[in-house]
Amino acid sequence: MLLDGQRTIAHIDMDCFFVSVECLKDGSLKGKPVLVGGRGDRAVVAACSYEARTFGIHSAMPMKMALRLCPHAIIRGGDMEEYSNFSRHVTDIIAGNAPLYEKSSIDEFYLDISGMDKYFGSLKWASELRQKIMRETKLPISLGLASNKMVSKVATNEAKPSGQLSIPFGQEKIFLAPMPIDKIPMVGKETAAQLRRRGVETVKTLSEIPIGLLEAWLGKNGISLWNKANGIDETPVIPFHEQKSISTESTFSTDTIDMDFIHSELVRMTEKIAFELRQQNRLAGCVTVKIRYSDFETVTKQMSIAYTASDHVLLEKVKELFSKLYDRRLLIRLIGVRFSHMVSGNYQISLFEDTHEMISLYQAIDSIKSQYGWQLLMRGSSSGGRFEEQLQPYQKKETFTMKRRYPK
Question: Of the residues 108, 265, 271, 316, which is catalytic?
Answer without folding.
Answer: 108
